[in-house]
Design brief:
This protein has 1149 residues and is of the alpha+beta class. The chain contains 23 helices and 58 strands. Bound molecules: zinc ion. Its EC number is 3.2.1.24.
Length: 1149
Amino acid sequence: MDSNRQGYQHGHGHSHGSYPQQNYTPGAKWVKSLTRDRLGQFTGGHYSDLNLSSVLFTHRVDNAEHVKLKVWSAPGLTKPTFEEAMQQKFKSAKKGDPFGPSWTNHWWKVSVTIPEYWQQYERVQFEFDPGCEAMIFTVDGTPLQGITGGYGGDRRVEYIIPPEAREAGYHEFVIESSCNGMFGVPMNGDTIQPPDMNRYFTLDSADLVVPNQEAWGLLWDFQTLRELVDTLPGNTSLQNKAMTVANQIMNVFDKNDPSSIGRCRKLAEEVFGKDWEEKGADIYEEGSSKTNVWGVGHCHIDTAWLWPYHVTQQKVARSWSTQIDLMDRYPEHRFACSSAQQYKWLEKLYPELFERVKEKVLDGRFHPIGGAWVENDSNMPSGEALVRQFLFGQRFFETRFGKRCETAWLPDSFGLTGAYPQLIRGAGMKYFFTQKLSWNNINVFPHSTFNWVGIDGTQVLCHMTPVDTYTAQATVGDVNKGLTNHKNLESSDTSLLVFGNGDGGGGPLAKMLENLRRIKGTTNTHRELPTVNMGHSVDEFFAEIEQSTKEGKTLPNWLGELYLEFHRGTYTSHGSIKKGNRHSEILLRDVELVWTLASLYKHSKSSVYPKEKIDESWEKVLLNQFHDVLPGSAIGMVYDDAEVLYGEVKRDGEALLEKAFSVLFPQSVPVTTIMRTKALTGSSKIVAFNTTFFPRWDIVTIPCLVKAGPNLKSLVMQATEDGREGFAIMHSPGGGAVGELKHPSNALHSQIKPVSVYTNGSDHFVLRNACVQLTISNGRISSLVDVKLNRELIPEGQTGGLVIFQDRPNYWDAWDVEIHHLETPTPLQFSNISVVAQGPLRAAVRAEVQYGQSRISVTISLDATTATIKPNSRSLFNFSALVDWRQRHEFLKFELPLNINSPFATYETQFGFVQRPTHKNTTWDIAKFEVCGHKFADFSEFGYGVAILSESKYGFSCQGNMLRISLLRSATAPDAEQDQGEHFFSWAVMPHEGSFLESDVPMAGYLYNSPLRLRCLPSGTSDLVSPLQSPFSVEGASNVFLETVKRGEYDNFEHEANFDDKATPATIVLRLYEAFGGHAQAKLSISSHLSVVKAFTTNLMEDHDEELYLLRDAETGPDSRCGLSLSFRGFEVKTVKLVLAHNSTLLSL
Ligand SMILES: [Zn+2]
């Protein structure tokens, strides 16, 4: 018995008698809630002259003896370079001086004299707070770091004086301050309000200070302890421990006893581990090797948003230089950074800083990510534009850093197309990071880590961080959320902590890196928090998931688009930007096709493929696709810039086209209303270059009819009322061939469906041909009839037409159209109808709509042709609107109730389509009340359907049987004048026999967006394209579309200019895709004049994949062709590279 008791006591290390027999104390039980509340009094607040805040700085001087300031303010909104600024006349300045207004730049020359006795201190800092953003340079112009003034959470106002300067007692440097905050200069401080263009700032601080480093250490200790207390459940031992220690620290701290700080810090080691701080970055080497949360520094810099592009250029330099500075002090710090465009700006405007970034990239600490030109919107860019985002992005990273990216990165884009997985893989990446769907305002997205499977079946490994932000502050709460909010813990228990201030730039702060070290120290000895690591890349994070989930086999899948249940107004906001995007994309496609052909006729230097010019234009289009520009959610200044860029693209693109046409169609002139009338006379002829690969017929307009020669006049089957213009019908073959205006063949003649029009002149008219008929009665579309089938498409008692909705979203004005808008329709009436074309080739009426202060003039026309040449194709009704838009917070749409029943409607997306519900069964269905589509939206049932085609609009909806296209919004934030003023746009209503899959809607959408390019050829001349007999055509599979024809990315155009015999071979790259979602076996037929010697399939980067067998026609006559057999799966995108014979030229033709 005795020996047992002895053993028991020894086993627990107790000695006899340590537990007192008597107890007259009150005991130590706390009132936990009061203790917790007390912790809020250790910094700042009511006791700031007694608590820790009172000792954070040992010394502070701001007098002229120690700090000398001189300033020069750049005139207006100019942004001079460092060198330019230094040549100006500076005047003396002082703390407290005001400067402004908004967006102006101010340069400061600063010299500081450091008191000799400050040499004893570990650190001396200059604290500069202009209330706005700023950048510190050396006196020879090297950018050192950014400054974020003001008192927000992103404040960073200290610049550490270099030790050698501290010892010398004197230091000079230069500061550029810019009159905007991290989030621009919003009116009344509400983030999304338009900018206050007249804000002035005050230089709040220009002080030389000695920070009490130990006190700052304690501040961060205490901060981490408080986060532990506030984050962890109250019944965990770590939470109680952290609170106990924090409480003791408050008891021990004494502002009059500097040594108390050290004792407080020692107390904190009870939570962070003994001597944790001395370990520095090595703290990450200790503890469990299993990591839950991977920390990666990041800085989301919106390429334009509440500030214009040129301000972003400064933000990039500020934010990135700050990170390089941090890396030198925190070796575990890794920084992932996207957007080739931002790197390119840095390279051009801050070359020394770019070199330092490059060093860190090569050193493996600074990680280019995303592989794209910008973090683009992913709803609206065309498929080809998304390809170019990657091609331009990856090519930039490869040429500058010798390496392409492995992870696609779009944390903030407003929904993600189901075309993406295939494109990401095609660009050489297999991982994808995003998070915006955490903003869904209806349903919670069910996955964190999953296989994202695109419309074609391609998958990428996707992580949507459970931390629900790309601007985490690296708090205990953030780390904890990485696990507690993870939705697939059964498959994977790791998450990415993407931390650092963002949107307006900034990136990680020292305090975040400090916090993470303390958290790591804590998890090395406690199990109640997820473990966190540092020092790795995002690629490594994904590679670990790939490996631990058996290459994704144990992960859930998500199929199709990642629809964002938010920001649905962005498909419509800023109509002119949408139009600029669509029209530029198509113009550049035309330029590339026409120039590819022209560049093969090497009779002069002027026919060298203008790669650089084309790239320049593409870069502008890609830049404007940034995820706050194209969506229409930026301030007005951004749109001024974007319009200029689109203007340049149009000007340069049209000029390039004209130059190529002058090669391919020598001596020709464009057929436009301003053409030289002389050209039409005699036996000159009109030809058309069809930039689509579909054969087509069009009603073309012949200008200056009076002066036309008899030959041309005889082809005109209809003249305008004033006799100035004539209409003729024209057939153009597909395959990039040339059509010629001539008397219709019998076959074409039989296809003409003469049109007629009737109107009462006020509110009633009928447009009709042998296949369709539209009636407007009492100002509304009351009837739409398929004449061939005698089928009425408008349900009895319902009408279609323009409609207005109240549009007052809950907060994000330009971003959101909220579900309630659908409850407030006001149908608008067409009035004052006049006939503007009588038929037989084109019948048209012009109608007016008046609403509020707005005036809308709509020309509704019907042509004698069908939408495509497909048998049984129907004609379409074209609506061209000229709108003077003066509404605010109202939404204009066009709607058509249809006698069709289907649970889904079909919308074009990049390289395919997406189907979305028309009903409201579940909240997931309800959420899709406004959706994105490209060139068409279609509502079909078995046997029949109606599509709406669009040339510049992207917003659609189909609710029940009501199909709508969204035309104009009118938000007032962040651009007070969004969409005010004149607009010109078109859409078309296209009935079709058969369901969508049996229809010609995708082809019609293509043709509708690609008008013929008409040329007038003088008599006796001929074009150079016709002898090619269609350069390229797709045979045997009507569902395979040839989208793009361009010269190879890596061709050597300089050699071409020199006519060098030994030049690298010319290549042609073609991009094709399957458009209907099914397998196809197609033959790509190529004119033998192109002398193809080899062909390869490639990825989107144009790296060879496999060589293709060239099929050659047996005969070797001039019309013989060669071909490639290509098999497709549904929605597959295929890139083919044709290698032409050495020194091949088409000159011999
Ligand atoms: Zn963003």
